[in-house]
């Protein structure tokens, strides 16, 4: 659609420019705040590298878990009308609107050693609170709405009659899903997983309640800010920003798809 | 052969009631009726995509009432083609054929592509195909596994008159050669007269008349069928005047 003309367009462009400046300004300022020497030091900072490694590992684990449990739910929500569907949909979206420290406290009460679930898991050898599993749980909790919503949209965009044609051509439901639904929804699923992964990497509030140590990158940056001020926090923050930019580029590539 | 006995189907708020039909092996039956009469619902119930509330479906002499769609031996062609957009024309046609090592799969694809005049399109994607080309691919795909029954849901409604005529001829030639049984939804009486041996008129989810297409046209059983027949004739006359 062409841009509207005249005064309206100029006003819209000015407001848009303000927003772009508001988003880009702080990020650019952050990039400029890090000296080459401090970045070089950050590259060899063992604690920072360990926390970034932990962040990448736990975020990947949380995303894989979110895919494992979230994609089937997204498919059910996209394809079937069932009793309680609206309630399930609302419950899955709830973590997106709950303040993250509140999510952390809720998870602590549910998965802590003194809770029934946390106690049973600990008995089975899986410690959650204060362990990397707690980081994964917090990341999963806050990122699963993004994954389910994106995956649901992707599945809903596949015409169910394509699956019906595949069934009539001899496919079982699972084979039709594998040969038709998954390839057609795949790009959307991958984009949803990337967004969920990025959301996990950026999480702080829930993680800090559940597993403060070992620190993920966001916790480490906060730690350094409170102990060493900006000078301590900026190099690590720049590294994390670079990581976020990489995810953004990957997302755009996935969304654009191969050139025709 | 298709035998439907007292079929009742619910789809959303719509109900199809008391549908009975006998189509002999190799015959071509049309289901006529206005939009919303339940024609597509009937086809989807026969294909096993909608659960029955009541009744029995027999296909090729086998009670298929409880069989899943993949075991009914039915080919389905929708009006809007529904080709698999991530696959080439060749892969679309071969979709329902088992993988083999002796070239039978490739031979069947080549045979159908030749019969429908789409051999030059085989290696293309489906995105840039015309409506007629897409419908030919959809027809070839449905026929590739040699189904006992072919279900057609207004397959020629979305193509231009010249292509429609060519597609009808190609379908008739394939039908004469392979003798599958056809259940064909249309609201075009001319199409019904040219292609079908028997016709079923559905209105508001119920069968209101059965007979040959000529009988239905000459002696409508109810005022509603008469109005439907008249409306179709007027529509065609108007179309011919404009065209």
Concise description?
The complex is a heterodimer of chains A (260) and B (243). With 260 residues, chain A is an all-alpha fold.
Total count of helical runs of at least 4 residues of chain B: 8
Low-pLDDT windows of residues of chain B: 239-243
Can you give the mean pLDDT of chain B?
A: 90
| Largest interface, Cβ cutoff 8 Å | A-B, 16 and 22 residues
Order of helices and strands of chain A: HHHHHHHHHHHH
Low-confidence stretches of chain A: none
- Report the end-to-end length of chain B measured between terminal Cα atoms: 38 Å
How many domain regions of chain A? Answer: 2
Question: Architecture of the largest domain in chain A, CATH level 2?
Answer: Orthogonal Bundle
Strand order of the largest sheet of chain B: 6-7-8-3-9-10
Shape of chain A: globular
| Shape summary of chain B | globular
Strand residues, percent of chain B: 25-35%
Cα separation of the termini of chain A = 22 Å
Specify Rg of chain A, calculated over alpha carbons.
22 Å
CATH topology of the largest domain in chain A: MetI-like fold
What would CATH call the homologous superfamily of chain B? P-loop containing nucleotide triphosphate hydrolases
Q: In CATH, what is the class of chain B?
A: Alpha Beta
Which range does the strand content of chain A fall in?
under 5%
Question: How would you explain this protein's 3D organization?
Answer:
The complex is a heterodimer of chains A (260) and B (243). By secondary structure, chain A is mainly α. Chain A folds into two domains: 1-33; 46-256, MetI-like (MetI-like fold, Orthogonal Bundle). Chain A is 80% helix and 0% strand. Chain A is built from twelve helices and no strands. The radius of gyration of chain A is 22 Å and the shape is globular. The mean pLDDT of chain A is 92. Chain B has 243 residues and is of the alpha/beta class. Chain B has eight helices and ten strands. In chain B, helix 4 (131-143) packs parallel to helix 5. Chain A binds chain B through residues 159, 161-162, 164-172, 179-180, 183-184, and chain B through 44, 47-49, 68-70, 72, 74-76, 78, 80, 82, 84-86, 95-96, 141-142, 145.
